[in-house]
Write a structure and sequence with these properties.
The chain folds into 2 domains: 63 residues, P-loop containing nucleotide triphosphate hydrolases (Rossmann fold); 83 residues, P-loop containing nucleotide triphosphate hydrolases (Rossmann fold, 3-Layer(aba) Sandwich), CATH 3.40.50.300. The chain is built from 4 helices and 5 strands. Helix 2 packs across helix 3 and helix 3 packs antiparallel against helix 4.
């Protein structure tokens, strides 16, 4: 699904990512662990094409969609939770009927269904984070990039991912 070989990202004399190589197979859960400034966010930005590497190669299975949940907030605070989800679904061309079903399912999973009509500016930081994660899953991506996912609330596992199953 993901192949990274000898990845380097430098900003002048400062090297943010130095000679990074790894492979992620379908169904695997892969995480970067490290202190602030270790290059985790930079690597995710390269993987999601938001940054170009200085050198090295990155290959994602081009047939697979990916979702991104950024470290920094990216919701429209003036829209409701439902409107944020719906707008995202339109951008990703999720068919209307499926979009409405997925929005309800995800807002329920992330315990936000009862707040779907509230403007996001009224949400706590944890609620906003849950909404961002729900939004990142709306278009059923095959790969999901979560930058600092534990910075707020994460639901109890209720679904299976790849080869992992939960009872």
């Amino acid at each position: 699904m993901i192949q990274v070989c000898n990845l380097i990202k430098a900003y002048g004399d400062f090297v943010a990512v130095e000679d990074l190589s790894f492979d992620v197979q379908e169904g695997e859960i892969f995480a970067f662990l490290g202190p602030n400034g270790a290059g985790k966010t930079t690597t995710i930005k390269i993987l999601t094409t938001l940054l170009k590497p200085t050198s090295g190669s990155v290959r994602l299975d081009a047939r697979k969609r990916f979702g991104i949940v950024f470290q920094d907030p990216s919701l429209d605070d003036e829209l409701t939770a439902y409107e944020n989800m719906d707008f995202h679904g339109v951008l990703y061309k999720v068919p209307r009927k499926l979009r409405l079903e997925r929005i309800e399912s995800l807002l329920r999973l992330f315990e936000l269904w009862d707040r779907r009509s509230d403007p996001v500016k009224q949400f706590s930081g944890g609620m906003k984070r849950r909404l961002e994660i729900a939004r990142g899953l709306l278009h059923t991506p095959k790969i999901v990039f979560l930058d600092e996912p534990r910075s707020a609330w994460i639901p109890k596992p209720a679904i299976s991912y790849g080869r992992t199953s939960r009872n």
